[in-house]
Structures are given as structure tokens and as C-alpha cells.
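Write out the bound-state structure for adenosine monophosphate.
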Amino acid sequence: MRTVRTVSEVRDALRDRVGRIGLVPTMGAFHDGHLSLIRAARDACDVVVVSLFVNPSQFNAADDLARYPRDEASDAAAAEAAGVDLLFAPTADALYPDGFDTWVEPGELATVLEGAARPGHFRGVATVCTKLFSIVGPDLAYFGRKDAQQVAVIKRVVADLNLPLEIVVLPTVRDADGLALSSRNAFLSPAERGAALALPRALEAGLAAHLAGRDTAEAARSVLAGERGLTVEYVAVADLDGPTLAVAVRVGATRLIDNVRL
Ligand code: AMP
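---
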């Protein structure tokens, strides 16, 4: 595996490669969710590129960006063990040099749920992913269902801008207790982690209600209301690359999202 930091190094490294290129965009602090995307890319592609970039433009709170977990050495070891060919770990200056002034602005889909809670978030996501697609030129790019609205936004961008790649979506990887893996889980105290388990329970209750023809969001809300250790931001049924029950909560200082396909 080679680690590179500049756009021209990526282009040089990929120039003579033949076969299908798979790209896995990440912000690092790898867990099994990331590794499931990397393994799927390794299975289907000849060349696997992983980007590791904590993208400042998708954070709307400076403290959230500052405390986002970073561990490039351990991520590089995990990527190498998973058979990654190229790790692209740019500096912020490499992707947003002085004078940078062009944005990919997704439409209505980016204004609800995560978009409403985090203004500008999807503009940052759409811009950085479009740049990564342009830099790497992948045939396939891999995303997790864990971020269902992100999947919907990226698919919209790819379709609307006629980008020549296929988006592959992989299921949410969960811990044995049901909590979706997330780099932010590292911030949870044991008590907070206990409270966070209401999230998968709420999704399960919502799905059961949906299948029984009852009110999906209401069933999820009532489970969350029974857990005093968290604050609900939203519970909603929406078309996020398919009908989805999506939930966002705060547990202490940590914001968690999860969803289930209906
Ligand atoms: P991040 O590093 O958080 O930006 O995530 C990079 C990619 O991994 C995104 O496509 C996420 O949707 C995906 N991902 C994050 N958590 C999980 C998970 N628990 N299961 C599957 N994919 C995930």
C-alpha cells in the first residue's frame, strides 16, 4: 500500500493501472463499518483507493471538527491489512487551496433532517465527494447505509452531474448489542452507551410498527421517550434512497444518527 498526500501523486499512482478502480471515501478512525466497505471494494475491484480526510467543509461546528477522532497510523495499518492499494490522506490545503471558491450545492434533499440540523453539511459532503471522484476517477465508490441521507444526496449528485461511476451501498454494521458502529461512539461513557442503545431499539420498534400497519415514527419516538439519558433531535420517515426510518439523538455531548430501511 502506498500513502499519498497530493492530487498529482494520486494521478501519477493511478495513471498506468488497468482494471476497475474502487474508491472508499472516509474520515478515518476505522471500525468494521469502514472495513466492510473496503472488503467489498477489494472483492469487486482491481485497484482499491481509500481516502482519509476529515473534511472541514462538512462540519458546521468548530468544536466538532476539532475533537473528531484521528489516528492515521492505525488506519493505515488496518487499510494495508485489508489489501488497500492506495491511501489518499491529503492535507486540507491540498483539497482547499487558497482561492478555492466552487461548491456542489445539492438541492431540496439536503435541506431536511441532517441538512436542517447541520446547515451546509451536505454541500461540504457533495463537494468533497465530487472532488474525490474527479481526482481518483473510480468505476465504483462505496458508501454505508448508516448515513442513508448521504447516500441519497450522493446518488442525486452523481445522476444530476452525469458522473461516470456507480455508487455501491453496504448495510450498517452493528455491535453485538445493536449499536451502529460509528467513529463517534468512542466519545460515549459506559452510561451514555447504555442510553444510546435506545436508538437500535427504537428502530426495531418502528420497523415492527410499520410491518403491523401502525404509526412507524410514533413507535420509535415512544421508545426514545422512555430513555432519559438522551435528547431526540428528529424521528422521521423519509425517502432516503428508499423508504427509511431515520433518527438523530444527542447523548451527552455526542450526536448519533441511525436508520432502518422500511
Ligand atoms: P465516515 O468515516 O464516518 O465518513 O464514514 C465513511 C463511510 O463509512 C461512509 O460511507 C459511512 O456511511 C460508512 N459507515 C460509517 N459507519 C458505518 C457502519 N456502522 N456500517 C456501515 N458503513 C458505515
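---
Residues 26-27, 33-34, 36-37, 143-144, 146-147, 170, 172-173, 180-183 surround adenosine monophosphate (CB under 6 Å).
The mean pLDDT is 97.
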